[in-house]
Design goal:
This protein has about 210 residues and is an alpha+beta fold. Helices cover about 30% and strands about 20% of the residues. The protein has a domain of about 100 residues: Phosphorylase Kinase, domain 1, CATH 3.30.200.
């Protein structure tokens, strides 16, 4: 099993969680690497590692405050630590629940209600601003062109992006750059795959799709 994990991960788990992993429950790798693990003690955790851009500690601190206030997010169980160029932390696994699928106004309203609840809970949380914004929402970037530079996406055929998307993004970015509004904390990857629902209510909000 350990052959499938980064060399540093078993030791990191032993040092910070008290036991090495004995099973991989799930794994996702993209901009970050996310590992759902079962430890030798029987405890299930999620370990997330990403390039350290200075944002992770503030994000995890805000996430912990949300959990303390009863918001159904995965509670961090370690602080952020450095492993080479990576920022690494672990959080509780919240298993169960289902995706809420669909594109009806009713489904959209359900997600909007959760997002509003999250933003309200974060409104008075004070942490060092986790800037710059993640690359995929970096509307205030200084790169040439409309989109922030993301190597994997820049290599793709840009002609496949519909013209109305480009036009809408340009107008939106212009409005954001012109706005004089306070910055707020939020969830930069609030998408359906990062939420689970149980018994008609939101059960878990996380960011485990990597």
């Amino acid at each position: 099993m350990e052959d499938d994990l980064p060399d540093w991960l078993p030791t990191w788990c032993a040092d910070h969680l008290g036991a090495e992993p004995v099973a991989v429950l799930f794994e996702a790798r993209s901009i970050s690497a996310v590992f759902g693990l079962r430890l030798a003690t029987g405890r299930d955790v999620v370990v997330k590692a990403r390039e350290d851009d200075g944002r992770a500690a503030s994000c995890v601190a805000a996430q912990a405050r949300l959990a303390d206030r009863g918001f159904p997010c995965a509670r961090p169980v370690t602080p952020v630590t450095g492993v080479g160029t990576l920022a690494v932390h672990a959080e509780e696994l919240r298993p169960g629940g289902e995706l809420l699928r669909g594109d009806s106004p009713h489904v959209a309203a359900r997600y909007a209600e959760v997002f509003a609840r999250l933003m309200t809970a974060l409104a008075d949380v004070t942490v060092p601003p986790p800037l710059p914004n993640p690359r995929w929402i970096r509307w205030d970037h200084t790169d040439p062109g409309l989109w922030p530079s993301i190597e994997d996406l820049d290599r793709r055929d840009q002609n496949t992006v519909p013209a109305y998307v480009v036009e809408t993004a340009g107008r939106l970015r212009g409005r954001l750059l012109a706005a004089d509004l306070p910055r707020v904390l939020g969830h930069a990857d609030f998408e359906a795959q990062n939420l689970r629902w149980l018994g008609g209510r939101v059960w878990a909000v996380h960011d485990w799709d990597s």
